[in-house]
Design a protein that fits this description.
single chain, mainly alpha, two-stranded antiparallel ribbon
Amino acid sequence: MMNMKLFDRWDVESIEPQDPGLKNEINIEPMLAPKKSHGRHAGDRFSKNEINIVERLMNHLMGPGHRGKKHKINSGRCGGNSSKIWNIMKDALTIIEDKQDKNPVEILVRAVENTALVEEVSSYQVGSIIKRKAVITSPQRRVDLSLRHIAQGAYSNSVGSKKNMAQCLADEILAAYNDERESYAVRVKERLEREARGAR
């Protein structure tokens, strides 16, 4: 049987998540094209875990969302056909491979594990006051937030920059892989977990 490689370049069969809490949430199923689901899992509650992790990141790149509550950076121009996001993702993985000489999909998985929240703050109302309490983040939400923050960090770095989106995405993934504060996702994770420690 033919060994399927992602984008017909990278073998993903030997990649395993190291975080036991995310083992069932990060799907690294071998496939040629990371556009298998076509949104058919959108209405099911937990079926996004069946989508390949590369495709999930590509979906976040289609609309990275506003960064912060003031909506300073509008991500409306990210919409469009998926072939554009396809090329951005492929170019970013190629840049990562050239810089690290490793499987770029494995580096992406480690970056997601490094930036996945462990706990966050939840607000609830008691009488007329709002209290804050530290809560454990669910595994699926950990992966979703990690991918969202990686996409937002890459997009915000590309706005007004000479670098293209693929280069910014590669830099964000590499910084998250090395657990460096240059990564927007790492900074957000540290901030949210610091707030959660203060709300215990």
